[in-house]
Design goal:
Glutamyl-tRNA Synthetase, domain 3, elongated, alpha/beta, 3-stranded parallel beta sheet, 3-stranded antiparallel beta sheet, Rossmann fold
Protein backbone atom coordinates (compact mmCIF):
# COMPACT_ATOMS: atom_id res chain seq x y z
CA UNK A 1 0.00 0.00 0.00
CA UNK A 2 1.29 3.44 -0.95
CA UNK A 3 0.87 5.85 1.95
CA UNK A 4 -1.06 8.96 0.88
CA UNK A 5 -1.61 11.87 3.25
CA UNK A 6 -3.13 15.31 2.80
CA UNK A 7 -3.19 18.77 4.33
CA UNK A 8 -6.44 20.60 3.59
CA UNK A 9 -6.36 24.25 4.73
CA UNK A 10 -9.11 26.78 4.11
CA UNK A 11 -7.63 29.72 2.17
CA UNK A 12 -9.32 32.26 4.41
CA UNK A 13 -6.16 33.67 6.00
CA UNK A 14 -2.43 33.15 6.41
CA UNK A 15 -1.24 29.96 8.09
CA UNK A 16 0.64 30.18 11.38
CA UNK A 17 3.01 27.92 13.26
CA UNK A 18 0.06 25.97 14.70
CA UNK A 19 -1.20 25.14 11.19
CA UNK A 20 2.29 24.09 10.19
CA UNK A 21 2.19 21.24 12.72
CA UNK A 22 -0.40 19.05 10.89
CA UNK A 23 1.10 20.05 7.53
CA UNK A 24 4.55 18.90 8.64
CA UNK A 25 3.21 15.77 10.34
CA UNK A 26 1.45 14.67 7.15
CA UNK A 27 4.41 15.50 4.91
CA UNK A 28 6.97 13.80 7.16
CA UNK A 29 4.79 10.71 7.59
CA UNK A 30 4.36 10.36 3.82
CA UNK A 31 8.05 10.92 3.07
CA UNK A 32 9.10 8.50 5.80
CA UNK A 33 7.03 5.80 4.10
CA UNK A 34 8.07 6.76 0.56
CA UNK A 35 4.50 7.89 -0.04
CA UNK A 36 2.62 10.87 -1.42
CA UNK A 37 1.54 14.21 0.11
CA UNK A 38 -1.44 16.17 -1.23
CA UNK A 39 -2.09 19.87 -0.62
CA UNK A 40 -5.86 20.26 -0.96
CA UNK A 41 -7.51 23.64 -0.60
CA UNK A 42 -10.88 23.64 1.15
CA UNK A 43 -12.16 26.61 -0.85
CA UNK A 44 -15.87 25.87 -1.24
CA UNK A 45 -16.71 28.88 0.97
CA UNK A 46 -16.53 31.28 -1.95
CA UNK A 47 -17.25 34.35 0.17
CA UNK A 48 -14.28 33.93 2.51
CA UNK A 49 -11.81 31.96 0.38
CA UNK A 50 -9.27 34.13 -1.44
CA UNK A 51 -6.80 33.23 -4.18
CA UNK A 52 -4.12 35.35 -2.51
CA UNK A 53 -4.41 33.26 0.66
CA UNK A 54 -4.01 30.03 -1.31
CA UNK A 55 -0.90 31.46 -2.98
CA UNK A 56 0.42 32.52 0.44
CA UNK A 57 -0.22 29.10 1.98
CA UNK A 58 1.57 27.28 -0.83
CA UNK A 59 4.52 29.69 -0.63
CA UNK A 60 4.76 29.28 3.15
CA UNK A 61 4.67 25.48 2.93
CA UNK A 62 7.41 25.42 0.29
CA UNK A 63 9.51 27.77 2.45
CA UNK A 64 9.18 25.27 5.30
CA UNK A 65 10.45 22.55 2.98
CA UNK A 66 7.10 20.95 2.17
CA UNK A 67 6.93 20.25 -1.55
CA UNK A 68 3.45 18.83 -2.41
CA UNK A 69 3.24 15.89 -4.78
CA UNK A 70 -0.24 16.99 -5.84
CA UNK A 71 -2.33 20.16 -5.43
CA UNK A 72 -6.13 20.09 -5.53
CA UNK A 73 -8.90 22.66 -5.09
CA UNK A 74 -12.32 21.62 -3.85
CA UNK A 75 -13.97 24.45 -5.79
CA UNK A 76 -13.05 22.53 -8.96
CA UNK A 77 -14.67 19.29 -7.77
CA UNK A 78 -18.29 20.31 -7.10
CA UNK A 79 -19.64 17.69 -9.53
CA UNK A 80 -18.11 14.95 -7.37
CA UNK A 81 -19.89 16.27 -4.28
CA UNK A 82 -23.17 16.54 -6.19
CA UNK A 83 -22.88 12.87 -7.14
CA UNK A 84 -22.15 11.84 -3.56
CA UNK A 85 -25.09 13.87 -2.23
CA UNK A 86 -27.39 12.25 -4.79
CA UNK A 87 -26.17 8.82 -3.71
CA UNK A 88 -26.93 9.56 -0.07
CA UNK A 89 -30.36 10.98 -0.90
CA UNK A 90 -31.21 7.90 -2.95
CA UNK A 91 -30.28 5.74 0.04
CA UNK A 92 -32.52 7.81 2.32
CA UNK A 93 -29.48 9.04 4.28
CA UNK A 94 -29.65 12.76 3.42
CA UNK A 95 -32.77 14.65 4.47
CA UNK A 96 -34.01 18.21 4.22
CA UNK A 97 -34.44 20.42 7.32
CA UNK A 98 -35.93 23.93 7.45
CA UNK A 99 -35.19 25.21 10.95
CA UNK A 100 -33.54 28.61 11.23
CA UNK A 101 -30.40 29.01 13.35
CA UNK A 102 -32.49 30.79 16.01
CA UNK A 103 -35.00 27.96 16.13
CA UNK A 104 -32.25 25.39 16.48
CA UNK A 105 -30.59 27.34 19.27
CA UNK A 106 -33.88 27.60 21.17
CA UNK A 107 -34.33 23.82 20.93
CA UNK A 108 -30.81 23.22 22.17
CA UNK A 109 -31.33 25.62 25.08
CA UNK A 110 -34.59 23.91 26.00
CA UNK A 111 -32.93 20.47 25.93
CA UNK A 112 -30.14 21.68 28.21
CA UNK A 113 -32.66 23.19 30.61
CA UNK A 114 -34.37 19.79 30.83
CA UNK A 115 -31.06 18.05 31.47
CA UNK A 116 -30.96 16.38 28.06
CA UNK A 117 -28.09 16.48 25.57
CA UNK A 118 -28.68 19.09 22.84
CA UNK A 119 -28.98 16.50 20.08
CA UNK A 120 -31.06 17.30 16.97
CA UNK A 121 -34.46 15.59 17.19
CA UNK A 122 -34.70 14.69 13.48
CA UNK A 123 -37.80 16.83 13.07
CA UNK A 124 -36.94 17.22 9.40
CA UNK A 125 -37.69 13.53 8.84
CA UNK A 126 -41.29 14.08 9.95
CA UNK A 127 -42.07 16.85 7.49
CA UNK A 128 -44.76 16.13 4.93
CA UNK A 129 -44.54 17.32 1.33
CA UNK A 130 -47.17 19.94 2.16
CA UNK A 131 -45.16 21.26 5.11
CA UNK A 132 -42.03 21.43 2.99
CA UNK A 133 -43.93 23.30 0.28
CA UNK A 134 -45.20 25.77 2.87
CA UNK A 135 -41.66 26.47 4.08
CA UNK A 136 -40.52 26.92 0.49
CA UNK A 137 -43.38 29.36 -0.12
CA UNK A 138 -42.20 31.36 2.90
CA UNK A 139 -38.81 31.67 1.24
CA UNK A 140 -37.06 29.14 3.41
CA UNK A 141 -34.38 26.96 1.85
CA UNK A 142 -33.47 23.58 3.35
CA UNK A 143 -30.18 22.53 4.81
CA UNK A 144 -29.43 18.82 4.49
CA UNK A 145 -28.44 16.43 7.26
CA UNK A 146 -26.85 12.98 7.14
CA UNK A 147 -28.88 10.32 8.98
CA UNK A 148 -26.50 8.63 11.38
CA UNK A 149 -26.73 4.81 11.60
CA UNK A 150 -27.58 4.82 15.32
CA UNK A 151 -30.93 3.03 15.17
CA UNK A 152 -32.50 -0.31 14.17
CA UNK A 153 -34.87 1.00 11.50
CA UNK A 154 -36.77 3.62 13.45
CA UNK A 155 -34.63 6.80 13.42
CA UNK A 156 -36.62 8.18 16.37
CA UNK A 157 -35.57 5.26 18.54
CA UNK A 158 -31.79 5.61 18.76
CA UNK A 159 -29.57 2.99 20.35
CA UNK A 160 -25.99 3.03 21.51
CA UNK A 161 -23.79 2.66 18.44
CA UNK A 162 -20.08 2.72 19.10
CA UNK A 163 -17.69 3.60 16.32
CA UNK A 164 -14.15 2.59 17.25
CA UNK A 165 -10.74 3.08 15.68
CA UNK A 166 -7.11 2.63 16.59
CA UNK A 167 -5.67 6.13 16.63
CA UNK A 168 -1.95 6.31 15.81
CA UNK A 169 -1.48 9.04 18.43
CA UNK A 170 -4.17 8.33 21.02
CA UNK A 171 -4.59 4.55 20.87
CA UNK A 172 -8.01 2.89 20.95
CA UNK A 173 -10.86 5.40 20.60
CA UNK A 174 -14.62 4.91 20.68
CA UNK A 175 -17.54 7.33 20.27
CA UNK A 176 -21.26 6.59 20.59
CA UNK A 177 -23.17 7.89 17.56
CA UNK A 178 -26.35 8.06 19.65
CA UNK A 179 -24.79 10.96 21.55
CA UNK A 180 -24.40 13.04 18.41
CA UNK A 181 -26.61 15.12 16.13
CA UNK A 182 -27.02 14.26 12.48
CA UNK A 183 -24.41 16.49 10.81
CA UNK A 184 -25.35 19.15 8.28
CA UNK A 185 -23.62 18.40 4.97
CA UNK A 186 -25.23 21.03 2.74
CA UNK A 187 -26.03 24.62 3.71
CA UNK A 188 -29.23 26.53 2.93
CA UNK A 189 -27.51 28.23 -0.01
CA UNK A 190 -26.67 24.84 -1.53
CA UNK A 191 -22.95 25.02 -0.71
CA UNK A 192 -21.23 22.00 0.78
CA UNK A 193 -19.68 21.84 4.19
CA UNK A 194 -16.15 20.57 4.50
CA UNK A 195 -17.30 17.24 5.99
CA UNK A 196 -18.78 15.82 2.79
CA UNK A 197 -16.19 17.36 0.47
CA UNK A 198 -13.32 16.04 2.52
CA UNK A 199 -14.67 12.50 2.64
CA UNK A 200 -15.40 12.40 -1.10
CA UNK A 201 -11.91 13.72 -1.84
CA UNK A 202 -10.25 11.27 0.53
CA UNK A 203 -12.02 8.42 -1.23
CA UNK A 204 -11.28 9.67 -4.75
CA UNK A 205 -7.64 10.48 -4.01
CA UNK A 206 -6.92 7.26 -2.14
CA UNK A 207 -5.90 8.94 1.11
CA UNK A 208 -4.67 6.23 3.47
CA UNK A 209 -3.91 8.26 6.61
CA UNK A 210 -5.59 11.33 8.09
CA UNK A 211 -3.30 13.11 10.54
CA UNK A 212 -4.88 16.14 12.20
CA UNK A 213 -5.42 17.98 15.47
CA UNK A 214 -7.15 16.46 18.47
CA UNK A 215 -9.98 19.00 18.11
CA UNK A 216 -11.32 16.72 15.33
CA UNK A 217 -11.59 13.57 17.46
CA UNK A 218 -15.32 14.02 18.09
CA UNK A 219 -15.97 14.33 14.34
CA UNK A 220 -14.21 11.11 13.46
CA UNK A 221 -17.00 8.66 14.28
CA UNK A 222 -19.47 10.64 12.15
CA UNK A 223 -17.01 10.75 9.27
CA UNK A 224 -16.34 7.01 9.47
CA UNK A 225 -20.10 6.47 9.19
CA UNK A 226 -20.25 8.66 6.07
CA UNK A 227 -17.28 6.85 4.51
CA UNK A 228 -19.17 3.58 4.96
CA UNK A 229 -22.41 5.04 3.62
CA UNK A 230 -20.53 5.96 0.44
CA UNK A 231 -19.21 2.42 0.14
CA UNK A 232 -15.66 3.07 1.32
CA UNK A 233 -13.54 2.13 4.31
CA UNK A 234 -12.19 5.07 6.27
CA UNK A 235 -8.46 5.84 6.29
CA UNK A 236 -6.30 5.34 9.37
CA UNK A 237 -6.59 8.27 11.79
CA UNK A 238 -4.06 10.05 14.00
CA UNK A 239 -5.07 12.97 16.22
CA UNK A 240 -2.15 14.93 17.62
CA UNK A 241 -2.08 17.52 20.39
CA UNK A 242 -2.40 21.17 19.39
CA UNK A 243 0.28 23.83 19.67
CA UNK A 244 -0.62 26.55 22.16
CA UNK A 245 1.28 29.35 23.81
CA UNK A 246 2.63 28.79 27.33
CA UNK A 247 -0.53 30.23 28.87
CA UNK A 248 -2.66 27.74 26.93
CA UNK A 249 -3.95 30.26 24.40
CA UNK A 250 -4.73 28.80 21.01
CA UNK A 251 -3.48 30.28 17.75
CA UNK A 252 -5.65 31.93 15.12
CA UNK A 253 -4.76 32.56 11.49
CA UNK A 254 -7.30 35.34 11.39
CA UNK A 255 -5.34 37.20 14.08
CA UNK A 256 -2.09 36.56 12.22
CA UNK A 257 -0.52 35.15 15.38
CA UNK A 258 2.97 33.87 14.58
CA UNK A 259 2.11 33.59 10.89
CA UNK A 260 4.66 31.74 8.80
CA UNK A 261 5.02 34.78 6.53
CA UNK A 262 5.78 37.12 9.41
CA UNK A 263 8.33 34.68 10.87
CA UNK A 264 10.04 34.44 7.48
CA UNK A 265 10.14 38.23 7.12
CA UNK A 266 11.53 38.50 10.65
CA UNK A 267 14.54 36.39 9.67
CA UNK A 268 13.53 33.12 11.36
CA UNK A 269 14.95 30.02 9.68
CA UNK A 270 12.44 27.50 8.30
CA UNK A 271 14.07 24.65 10.22
CA UNK A 272 13.65 26.57 13.49
CA UNK A 273 9.91 26.71 12.80
CA UNK A 274 9.77 23.08 11.65
CA UNK A 275 11.81 21.83 14.62
CA UNK A 276 9.60 23.59 17.15
CA UNK A 277 6.33 22.71 15.40
CA UNK A 278 7.16 19.00 15.13
CA UNK A 279 9.08 18.25 18.34
CA UNK A 280 7.08 20.30 20.88
CA UNK A 281 4.66 18.08 22.78
CA UNK A 282 6.52 14.86 21.98
CA UNK A 283 8.92 12.66 23.92
CA UNK A 284 11.80 14.14 21.91
CA UNK A 285 13.80 17.11 23.17
CA UNK A 286 13.00 20.30 21.29
CA UNK A 287 16.24 20.94 19.45
CA UNK A 288 17.38 22.71 16.31
CA UNK A 289 17.25 20.02 13.62
CA UNK A 290 19.46 21.06 10.68
CA UNK A 291 17.40 19.75 7.75
CA UNK A 292 14.22 17.96 6.75
CA UNK A 293 16.01 14.68 6.14
CA UNK A 294 17.10 14.57 9.79
CA UNK A 295 13.65 15.64 10.98
CA UNK A 296 12.08 12.88 8.88
CA UNK A 297 14.27 10.34 10.65
CA UNK A 298 13.29 11.71 14.08
CA UNK A 299 9.57 11.94 13.38
CA UNK A 300 7.38 9.38 15.16
CA UNK A 301 3.64 9.69 15.75
CA UNK A 302 3.91 7.33 18.72
CA UNK A 303 6.09 9.92 20.48
CA UNK A 304 3.30 12.52 20.50
CA UNK A 305 2.14 13.25 24.05
CA UNK A 306 -1.49 13.22 25.19
CA UNK A 307 -0.85 16.44 27.12
CA UNK A 308 -0.83 19.93 25.61
CA UNK A 309 1.97 21.03 23.29
CA UNK A 310 2.79 24.39 24.85
CA UNK A 311 5.61 26.56 23.58
CA UNK A 312 7.18 29.92 24.25
CA UNK A 313 7.69 31.99 21.05
CA UNK A 314 11.09 32.97 22.50
CA UNK A 315 12.16 29.35 21.88
CA UNK A 316 12.18 30.13 18.17
CA UNK A 317 15.04 32.59 18.63
CA UNK A 318 17.03 30.05 20.65
CA UNK A 319 16.59 27.39 17.96
CA UNK A 320 17.27 29.94 15.25
CA UNK A 321 20.54 31.02 16.85
CA UNK A 322 21.75 27.43 17.04
CA UNK A 323 21.03 26.92 13.35
CA UNK A 324 22.78 30.16 12.39
CA UNK A 325 25.83 29.35 14.52
CA UNK A 326 26.26 26.08 12.61
CA UNK A 327 25.29 27.43 9.18
CA UNK A 328 27.99 26.88 6.52
CA UNK A 329 28.98 29.82 4.37
CA UNK A 330 27.50 28.21 1.25
CA UNK A 331 24.06 28.28 2.86
CA UNK A 332 24.39 31.92 3.90
CA UNK A 333 26.27 33.32 0.89
CA UNK A 334 23.39 34.54 -1.27
CA UNK A 335 21.60 36.09 1.69
CA UNK A 336 24.74 37.92 2.80
CA UNK A 337 25.18 39.27 -0.72
CA UNK A 338 21.57 40.47 -0.68
CA UNK A 339 22.39 42.35 2.54
CA UNK A 340 25.28 44.09 0.79
CA UNK A 341 27.91 42.04 2.63
CA UNK A 342 30.96 41.00 0.60
CA UNK A 343 33.22 39.71 3.35
CA UNK A 344 33.22 36.14 2.11
CA UNK A 345 33.67 33.00 4.16
CA UNK A 346 36.20 34.55 6.53
CA UNK A 347 33.71 37.19 7.59
CA UNK A 348 30.86 34.71 8.06
CA UNK A 349 33.05 32.33 10.06
CA UNK A 350 34.07 35.23 12.31
CA UNK A 351 30.58 36.57 13.06
CA UNK A 352 28.04 33.75 12.79
CA UNK A 353 28.58 32.66 16.41
CA UNK A 354 27.28 36.06 17.52
CA UNK A 355 24.21 36.15 15.25
CA UNK A 356 20.70 35.07 16.28
CA UNK A 357 19.60 35.64 12.67
CA UNK A 358 21.54 35.85 9.43
CA UNK A 359 20.47 39.50 9.19
CA UNK A 360 22.39 40.29 12.38
CA UNK A 361 25.59 39.99 10.32
CA UNK A 362 24.86 43.43 8.89
CA UNK A 363 25.80 45.04 12.22
CA UNK A 364 29.23 43.40 12.12
CA UNK A 365 29.74 44.27 8.48
CA UNK A 366 29.19 47.91 9.42
CA UNK A 367 31.91 47.50 12.03
CA UNK A 368 34.25 46.14 9.37
CA UNK A 369 33.49 48.81 6.80
CA UNK A 370 33.04 51.74 9.17
CA UNK A 371 32.53 54.35 10.20
CA UNK A 372 32.38 53.24 13.84
CA UNK A 373 31.37 55.36 16.80
CA UNK A 374 34.43 54.62 18.88
CA UNK A 375 34.13 54.67 22.65
CA UNK A 376 37.05 55.69 24.86
CA UNK A 377 36.82 56.09 28.62
CA UNK A 378 38.91 58.99 29.93
CA UNK A 379 41.09 56.69 32.01
CA UNK A 380 41.84 54.62 28.88
CA UNK A 381 42.78 57.48 26.53
CA UNK A 382 46.55 57.27 27.07
CA UNK A 383 46.40 53.47 26.88
CA UNK A 384 44.69 53.31 23.48
CA UNK A 385 46.98 56.06 22.20
CA UNK A 386 49.98 53.93 23.15
CA UNK A 387 48.26 50.94 21.52
CA UNK A 388 48.49 52.72 18.18
CA UNK A 389 52.26 52.82 18.47
CA UNK A 390 52.52 49.16 19.46
CA UNK A 391 50.35 47.73 16.63
CA UNK A 392 52.61 45.09 15.02
CA UNK A 393 54.02 45.96 11.61
CA UNK A 394 53.05 44.16 8.42
CA UNK A 395 49.90 42.37 7.34
CA UNK A 396 47.17 42.03 9.97
CA UNK A 397 46.54 38.30 10.51
CA UNK A 398 44.83 36.03 13.02
CA UNK A 399 48.02 36.21 15.13
CA UNK A 400 48.11 40.02 15.26
CA UNK A 401 45.66 40.38 18.16
CA UNK A 402 47.65 38.08 20.46
CA UNK A 403 50.97 39.73 19.58
CA UNK A 404 49.51 43.21 20.02
CA UNK A 405 47.90 42.55 23.42
CA UNK A 406 51.00 40.75 24.70
CA UNK A 407 53.11 43.79 23.80
CA UNK A 408 50.62 46.10 25.54
CA UNK A 409 50.53 43.87 28.61
CA UNK A 410 54.33 43.89 28.88
CA UNK A 411 54.52 47.68 28.58
CA UNK A 412 51.48 48.79 30.62
CA UNK A 413 51.01 45.93 33.09
CA UNK A 414 47.32 45.75 32.18
CA UNK A 415 45.59 42.39 32.01
CA UNK A 416 42.16 40.83 31.58
CA UNK A 417 39.27 43.18 30.90
CA UNK A 418 41.43 46.27 31.36
CA UNK A 419 43.74 45.02 28.59
CA UNK A 420 41.14 43.92 26.01
CA UNK A 421 37.99 46.00 26.54
CA UNK A 422 39.37 49.47 25.70
CA UNK A 423 40.62 48.13 22.36
CA UNK A 424 37.32 46.43 21.54
CA UNK A 425 35.39 49.60 22.35
CA UNK A 426 37.56 51.89 20.28
CA UNK A 427 37.69 49.52 17.27
CA UNK A 428 34.08 48.25 17.24
CA UNK A 429 32.07 50.60 19.46
CA UNK A 430 30.74 47.51 21.31
CA UNK A 431 31.40 45.81 24.64
CA UNK A 432 31.06 42.36 23.17
CA UNK A 433 30.98 40.58 19.83
CA UNK A 434 33.02 38.23 17.67
CA UNK A 435 36.55 37.25 18.67
CA UNK A 436 38.87 40.20 18.04
CA UNK A 437 41.57 37.96 16.58
CA UNK A 438 39.14 37.14 13.75
CA UNK A 439 37.83 40.69 13.35
CA UNK A 440 41.20 42.47 13.14
CA UNK A 441 42.23 41.05 9.72
CA UNK A 442 38.80 42.00 8.36
CA UNK A 443 38.94 45.53 9.75
CA UNK A 444 42.40 45.98 8.22
CA UNK A 445 45.41 48.05 9.21
CA UNK A 446 44.20 51.39 7.86
CA UNK A 447 40.82 51.21 9.59
CA UNK A 448 42.52 50.15 12.84
CA UNK A 449 44.88 53.13 12.72
CA UNK A 450 42.08 55.51 11.78
CA UNK A 451 40.06 54.46 14.84
CA UNK A 452 42.94 54.78 17.33
CA UNK A 453 43.72 58.30 18.60
CA UNK A 454 47.15 59.63 17.70
Amino acid sequence: MTVITRFAPSPTGHIHIGNSRPALFNWLFAKQAGGKFILRFDDTDLERSKVEYAVSIERDLRWLGIDPDQIERQSERIANYDAAADKLRAAGLLYACYETPDELERRRSRARALGRPPVYDRAGLKLTDEEKAKFEAEGRKPHWRFLLPNHDGDPFETRRTDISWNDLCRGEQSIDLASMSDPVLIREDGSYLYTLCSIVDDIDMGVTHIIRGEDHVANTAVQIAIFRALGAEAPIFAHHNLLTTVDGEGLSKRKGALSIGSLREDGIEPMAVASLAVLTGTSHAVEAVPDMETLTEKFDLASVSRSAAKFDPAELLVLNARLVHDMPYAAASDRLTALGISGGEAFWSAVRGNCEKVGDAKLYWQIIEGPVESRIEEEDRDYVSRARDLLPDGEVTAETWSAWTQALKAETGRKGRGLFMPLRRVLTGLDHGPDMKDLLPLIGRQNILDRLPG
